[in-house]
Write a structure and sequence with these properties.
With 409 residues, the chain is an alpha+beta fold. It is built from five helices and 24 strands. The protein is elongated, with a radius of gyration of 46 Å.
Length: 409
Amino acid sequence: MTDASERIRALKIDREAATRAGGSGRLWLLVPATLIVLFVAWWFLLRPAAGSVLVEIDTARQPPSIGAASSVLDASGYVVARREATVSSKLTGKVEEILVEEGMRVEKDQIVARLDAATQRAQFDLANAQVVAARAALVEIEAQLRAARLERDRARDLAARQLTSVSSLDAAEANFDSLAARLETGRENVKVAESNRALAQDALDNMTIRAPFGGMVVSKNAQPGEMISPVSAGGGFTRTGICTIVDMDSLEIEVDVNEAYIQRVVAGQRVSATLDAYPDWQIPAEVIAIVPTADRQKATVRVRIGFLERDERVLRDMGAKVAFLGAEAPAQAGQQVQGVMIAQEALQRDADGDFVWRVKNNLVERRGVTVGGSRDRERVLVANGLAAGDTVVRSSEAALRAGQEVRTE
């Protein structure tokens, strides 16, 4: 009976063991299922489309101005000041007072700083005292000379009447001549003393620093208590300037033009300038001069461009882009410009003429265009064939064909 019970228990199914075994089996089945889902997601979502070409695109835009559309050459440069100076002192001294700050406008000869002038003031007082002493000595000599003149005249009168000896007359004459010579020496001593006083006055005046011309203070280089010198000294602890002043009326643009295109630029040529800080602001300008030398390393020629209108928004060292206008440029700045501007790299040419690759719905199509103006600019005016807002291919990693699928990243 016991054996029969044991056999029956041996045939009983262990439900807990079956549950543990089944759970482990299902976990192993989830691993390949997860891998399959990730592969499908990559295939349909992350994998680049078959046959698509990576491209860089550009957007056709309306020209910002008639000048930008009609230029014969584009260049970039910086706003510079033809007249600027770092104001310093002629003598070494300690800064006592600074009267300017950055952004302050100063006039010509306005005081910008004062140096400690105690030593120079004492030297001036000494020189002035020497002038007073020299003049007093001159007055004394003049009095002695008058007395010597009277004595000489009496001696001459007595000698004429033979009432005195010749030696007495000679002594009177010699005394008068000696005092006359001393008088001339005294007068020269007064001049020397006055010159020394003028030098001392100049040294004293040099302790007051003045603006050499009117302009704007763009930097303040020293503080009260610091030493300042016209030359660098003191192991780096001595300043060489008080402040830097820029004449804002002398601001102009300097650009480097490739020497291969310098023949398109002439003095007096009209220019449309745009500051990087204000890309929508077209500033009328003109070519002042072409610097008559070339940079052999960069193969460029420097061109100076002057503003025809002054504005406080124009600051030194601002980046600027300029468009040199041709003779056919319209005179009316507000005239509507026909066409759009695209990057020069997007324009292509073959036996059939000029064309671009226009992108629409990630597919490219060949679009014939008509170019207006110069072709070797950074952005080219397309008169016909494109509309503002159209997307064109600027560069591609492989050759394109009509209907080719493209991607940008």
